[in-house]
Amino acid sequence: MHPSPENTPYDLLGGDSAVRALVDRFYDLMDLEPEFAHLRALHPASLDESRDKLYWFLSGWLGGPDMFVERKGHPMLRARHMPFPIGVQERDQWLACMHRAMDAQPMSPALRQHLEGALFKTADWMRNQPG
Description:
about 130 residues, globular, Globin-like_sf, metal-binding, Hemoglobin, oxygen carrier activity
């Protein structure tokens, strides 16, 4: 897959409604599935703001509207996540939850592979705990 301005991952995924559906499925899984309880515990009681922030971020990160930057400024992902202990377990739970959410989203194998690789790099970069 070779994204271009007319062929962004955002467009290939299905645009705004597809990104929102992906994020909603991600947080539904995190909230309901016992395997993601540790990850869920790092979030506030209400996931509404978390849902919006991830939706805004993914929209721009995937090549769509840069909603996060418009509302919050530069993402500074690592700095914004420093207050939370993120190690291998948290990274892996986040990725597993996102992969499960992606299972519910129609996409080509090439797009899926591209997103999985990019999401791993981003999630791994967020680690601030050893091991």
